[in-house]
Amino acid sequence: MTSAENRAFGVYVHWPFCLSKCPYCDFNSHVRHAAIDEERFARAFTREIETTAARVPGRDVTSIFLGGGTPSLMAPRTVGAILDAIGQHWRVGPDVEVTLEANPTSVEATRFAGYRAAGVNRVSLGVQALDDVSLKMLGRLHSSREALDAVAIARRAFDRYSFDLIYARPGQTPAMWADELKVAITEAAEHLSLYQLTIEEDTPFFGLHAAGKLKTPDEATARALYDVTQEVCALHGLPAYEISNHARPGAECRHNLVYWRGEEYAGIGPGAHGRLDINGGRLATATDRRPEAWLMRVEANGHGVVTDDRLNSEERADEFLLMGLRLAEGIDPKRYAALAGRALDPNRIALLREEGAIAVEADGRLRVTQAGFPVLDAVVADLAA
Ligand SMILES: C[S@@+](CC[C@H](N)C(=O)[O-])C[C@H]1O[C@@H](n2cnc3c(N)ncnc32)[C@H](O)[C@@H]1O
Ligand code: SF4
Q: With bands split at pLDDT 50, 70 and 90, how would you rate the model's confidence at 3?
C-alpha cells in the first residue's frame, strides 16, 4: 500500500454539452439549441464539489480533469469558479495536473489564454484525423488546418498538451496511417491518445454500419493498423503506456493513471463516475446523466448522485485487474490477492504465458504483452475467472 502522503486523488468534472453530436460518439454529450445558463451550472458544480468534499475530506488533489462533452465551450470564468471550489474544499498542491478537453476549432483556441489564467496547465485536443475527408466523414466541425492551428496555440499557452486521433477509419490503410501518425508525433511532442474506431450502439454509425453503408477495416487490417501504431510511436519515443495512450516517459497523463491504477477519484457533474474510499470500503458513485435533471437534483439535495454502491472484494479485485492490465506496467498480483482474498490462478497464468499473451517481470509484476493487447478482454476474463 502507498502511504497517505503519496496516494493519488483525482477530481473529474463533466461538462455535458457539445455544439453538434458526432455520429460515432456515445459519450454523455448533449446539444442544446437554447442558451445554456452557465452561471447556474457553475453554482451547481460548486455545490456538488462541496458536498463530495464533505464525504471525503482532507484529500490532497493530485489531478483534475475537465472532460466532456466539450469543456472548451465553457467560459474561462466558469472553469475558474470550478477550480476555485476544488481548492476551497480540498488541498491542491502547486504541482497538480489540471487538464481540459478541448475541441480544436479557432473559436475555442481563443479561450486558451483564459483557461491558462484560470489554472489549467494541460489540454487534450480532439483532433481525430489529419485529413479533411476523414474529418467530414466523422462529422467534425473543424478542418485539419484549423486543428493544427489550435495545436500551435495550445503549444504556446500550455507546458503540456496532447491530442486524440481515431484510426481504423473506413478505407484507411496501414501505410496511410503510418504517414498520418508521423505528422501527429511531430505536432504532439509528448502525448497522444490513439483510439481504434468503435461502432457504438445507439449512434448513427451503428445503423450505417449495420446497413453496410459504413465499412470499417476487416480484422487483419485492424490488427495491422494497431501494429503500425505501436511500431511508429515506439520508434519516435512515444511508447504505449496504456492500450490507447502513448507518451514520452514521464509525460503520461497523471489523471488517467489514477483510474488505471485503481486510485481514488471524485466524479462531479452530469453522468460523472467516482470511486470514494469511505469507512474502509470503496464506493462506486455515479450522478444523473441528464444535464437538467442533474442540475435540479444538485439544487435540491446538494448532489446529483443516483448510484452509491459499496463494492465487494470480488468487484474491487475484478476492477483492479480490468483497469490495471490496460497499462504497460501491468499489475502487482499481491495487490490483487489482498483485494480478492485469493491469489490469481497459477495454472491460468502459466497457460497465458505459454501463449505469449502475458509476461511476469522479475519483480513479480504481471503485464499483458504486445501480442496480448489486441485480445485484452479475453485475457482479463480468463485471469478473473
Ligand atoms: C469524450 S471525447 C471528447 C473530446 C472532445 N469533445 C472532442 O470531440 O474533441 C474523447 C475522445 O474519445 C474518442 N472517441 C469517442 N467516440 C469514439 C469511438 N466511437 N471510437 C473511437 N474513439 C472515440 C475521440 O477521440 C474523442 O476525442
Ligand atoms: S466526440 Fe466530442 S464533440 Fe463529438 S459528440 Fe462526442 S464529446 Fe461531443
A: very low
Rounded CA-CA distance 208/218 in Å is 16
CB 326 within 8 A of CB 252: no
CA of 128 to the centre of ligand 2 (A): 10
- C-alpha 126 – ligand 1 centre gap (Å): 7
Measured distance CA(142)–CA(316) in Å, rounded: 41
Q: What is the pLDDT of residue 108?
A: 86
- Quick one: CA torsion of 231, 234, 236, 240, rounded to 10 degrees? 120
Contacts of 86 (CB under 8 A, 6+ apart): 11, 49, 61, 64, 92
Identify the three-state secondary structure at position 121.
Answer: coil
**Cα–Cα dist 374/203, whole Å:** 24
How far is 279 from 70, CA to CA, in rounded Å?
Answer: 35
pLDDT at position 1: 42
State the pLDDT at residue 14: 98
Supply the residue whose CA is at minimum distance from atom 2 of ligand 2: 69
Which residue CA neighbors atom 27 of ligand 1 most closely?
126
Q: In whole angstroms, give the CA distance from residue 139 to residue 122.
A: 26
Considering every ligand atom, which ligand is closest to the CA of 20? 2
8 A C-beta contact, residue 287 and residue 306: yes
Taking CA atoms only, the protein residue closest to ligand 2 atom 6 is 25
pLDDT tens figures, 25-71: 999 999 999 999 999 999 999 999 999 999 999 999 999 999 999 99
Cα(92)–Cα(63) distance, rounded to whole angstroms?
9
Q: What would the mean pLDDT of 244-254 be, rounded to a whole number? A: 97
Beginning with the edge strand found earlier in the chain, give each strand of the sheet holding 245-247 in spatial order: 240-242, 245-247, 191-196, 160-167, 122-128, 91-102, 60-68, 9-15, 264-268, 273-278, 281-287, 305-310
Tell me, yes or no, if the pTM score tops 0.90: yes
Q: Which residues of 191-215 are buried (b: 16+ CB within 10 A; e: fewer)?
A: bbbbebbeeeeebebbebbeeeebe
Beta carbon of 30 within 6 Å of any ligand 2 atom:
no
Residues 6+ apart with CB under 8 A from 250: none
Residue 258 in this model has a pLDDT that exceeds 90: yes
